[in-house]
Amino acid sequence: MLGLMQDWPLTVDKIIDHAKNWHGHREVVTRSVEGPIVRTTYAEIHARAKRVSGVLKDWGIQKGDRVATLAWNTGRHMEVWYGIMGIGAVCHTLNPRLFPEQLIYIINHAEDKIIFVDLTFIPLLEAVLPHCPTVERVVVMTDELTMPATKLPGAECYEAILSGASGDIAWGEFEEGTACGLCYTSGTTGNPKGVLYSHRSNFIHTLLGMQSTVLGPSPSEVILPVVPMFHANAWGIAFAGPAGGTKLVMPGARMDGAAIYELIESEGVTFSAAVPTVWQGLLMHLREHKLQIPTVKKVLIGGSAVPESLIRAFNDEFGIEVLQGWGMTETSPVGSLSNMTPELAALPFEEQLKWRTKQGTPPLGVELKIKNVAGQDLPHDGHTYGRLMVKGPTIAGAYFRSDEKILDHEGFFDTGDVSTVDDHGFMQITDRAKDVIKSGGEWISSIEIENIAVGHPKVELAAVIGAAHPKWDERPVLVVKLKPGEPQDRQEHLDFLVGKIAKWWMPDDVVFVDDIPLGATGKVDKKLIRERMKDYVLPTAA
Amino acid sequence: MLGLMQDWPLTVDKIIDHAKNWHGHREVVTRSVEGPIVRTTYAEIHARAKRVSGVLKDWGIQKGDRVATLAWNTGRHMEVWYGIMGIGAVCHTLNPRLFPEQLIYIINHAEDKIIFVDLTFIPLLEAVLPHCPTVERVVVMTDELTMPATKLPGAECYEAILSGASGDIAWGEFEEGTACGLCYTSGTTGNPKGVLYSHRSNFIHTLLGMQSTVLGPSPSEVILPVVPMFHANAWGIAFAGPAGGTKLVMPGARMDGAAIYELIESEGVTFSAAVPTVWQGLLMHLREHKLQIPTVKKVLIGGSAVPESLIRAFNDEFGIEVLQGWGMTETSPVGSLSNMTPELAALPFEEQLKWRTKQGTPPLGVELKIKNVAGQDLPHDGHTYGRLMVKGPTIAGAYFRSDEKILDHEGFFDTGDVSTVDDHGFMQITDRAKDVIKSGGEWISSIEIENIAVGHPKVELAAVIGAAHPKWDERPVLVVKLKPGEPQDRQEHLDFLVGKIAKWWMPDDVVFVDDIPLGATGKVDKKLIRERMKDYVLPTAA
What we know:
homodimer, about 550 residues, alpha/beta, 7-stranded mixed beta sheet
């Protein structure tokens, strides 16, 4: 027997409709790519998004067609985003930090028909576009006054096309499973893979994000999403902001400490979300200029593990709570959050840090397990490592145009991370599965050793990789890039680890290198390190 | 083109699974019907709900079968609730405040097969059950020590059946549209009507309720749902509590001020939800004993319009914010909430009251409109009255076993309320559509006049009804029940209204009565008043 409630498809056009109807005057403030601070409202964004839809319809864009953006977080980007999605086309957010050959690959793989581009990225697109035959048009997201000369064939000016467009366009009226957004992972192995979000998954993810323990948007908050819309949907803020009637402050192209501080100060930001490096930049700026940001109550940090020092600094110096989040493109991206329980919150702050540095618990709607190689569930004891597996309506079930089977027999997606879960339910990522070192049937976390090793005052960067060993299968090797002028002393780096890690985790060797390569997302590129060291032989294995 | 996210049906068994997995130690504290305070956890509730499912399966309960509860808010009621829903049976919450003949009607209409009953309601059920042929078994929700002698045929003891049950039962694995809960309206016209919730609607409603602007459950909160599970699902708290990992405090059979205070004080309640009369009772108790409840930050009040005096008293005397909510059985029930915007919050508190006494704005997922009789949208100007219409995935589309068409051409459900919406988006209910007085083509709100009239120091209760008038169609009549011993002076009640309502709203007559009848939910029963006054003739119409 079926229930008798209304059939109301969960489609994201209803999010911006809701914002227009109930929070129409609420502002979206942007540091424009052209420079000045510009202000708009949800009512205006709604009206202009309708006109974007009108233009796309005029150009023959159909349901399911891919329309791309290569753009910063701005009010205009939100207009384009909702304008594309509202008519059932797919908004493909291109990540400008990808290498040009990766951009070419994903534009062709997605068969994008139109690309909306910010001024900043015109040179990049000029280099890429000749290799992308499916792209019919390019729209430069600026007005006629600042429209540049460009080699882009038939480039259109955003404000010019909008001024002539009709906004009398119906949105929605398709099933909620309809494709809505497309975002490629910047995976370090093989080609990027496309995650094809549905209206349903984005709407449900918006509801997950609206929980008080996630983003908690409301008209009383002012949210600054530094995390880009091209990076896992700005962690859902471009949906949750309008859904909650929350003023958004969009940083445009500038994410340096001074720029972020200025927006926080002038717009009264209460909550912000960014990767650790952005927060490090802000922290340096605040300290250098002896500034405070009293309106900010909480910051969400994700994208990579949050250093304890950052959590402590925000708490001690600025009275700001750091909420750590974990997620990935394949999880829409909210996966887990480090919300303190009352038991943990009752501890002294220094003791809380043990949990605040973990990735925390999943919200309702995300099923999360750690499993061993045989696919069996592992205990929540805080020390047993396993593959981190997730399941839910906001988790990828397959990649776009790929036959790869990515779910296990229980329907769980393998995140590629290795983690523990403790008896408070707090998940902690200990390594990427491909980086974990298998030694004598046990696992050694390369990340844990790295995090300690990099704390040595003479070390600039450190990486730990597994090297082949005849008896133990693999043993850890510490790869160190020293600060300029520091002497190479193998033993002092090993001594530095003593007492901080298990004895059997102690690296068998230390290798000094001039350069530790970083990938597109600023993380150490261990694949490249392993390639460079493919002829390396462990002294203990010889 | 469809998105490629996982197919994960939104079913409510996943809510209690989530609570067990991530908040298994979090408590549910109950003032038991037997008397003592009893404590359990989400892990235990989960395990025992599985055994309830086992028992139901053993008894042949199939998907779609209706299993009823006649019970207070307790941990046991939650076990039964999830135990029924988990196997795809329908949990029919019986409202013990209905008249026995209404209970008989709805049990027969629903064809309930089993009824779980609290000790309190055994006499009521003994009277009702002989008229309910579909009921096969009754389970008394107590243990063997307190199991009473009862005339109920074949009554089972809850703890006895649970102790012998298997908990090895699979939940879910049916489509999300599957019926999940059944609740009948206590409408004042005609027979009660059944709202048949689906798993999908209840899950989405849970996500709506988890927003920081609605219930905002989290492990840091302690929520006391005074509003009963048999009354519009306890406003969703029996779902949102476990979903948010929130400690719940269940009041059982006692909702008097002393009992509620004791629970708040001993359990550290931070948030509670109830109808105005419960809060009036608590307020009297607090004042009388000069008590404070500093752990409570916010209370949600709904069910009927919240008196300004109550909002002011909680704010001024106890530093507690009153959040007013509007909803109904047909809306799951969250419809709108009086969250202050930053603009309104910046006003002095006395000025805020103009909005705090309104029913507020809808959350994402509830579409809300006011329409005129012709079905056209009316403006948000704060004074134009219209039929309050709602639409969404948590709104009824039809009544159980009824052919009545309840949605308009746009798919909106007519709430039967008349309201305004102002330019801040705040909805205010001005009357029930059937009580509004149509005078000269314009509408007069009976409720607004009543709310003022009842403030006269000599008045105990007041009602305003429309009486036929040859020229104006209807004119208002003020019906007054005086406090004991007060003299009948028609003019002083009219004078009391002068300057507080429009001149043309002024009642044409004042009628003094010995008794103003109240309905099952404590509201004035205007239908009965109109019946009693069916021979009344307006002096102005004579």
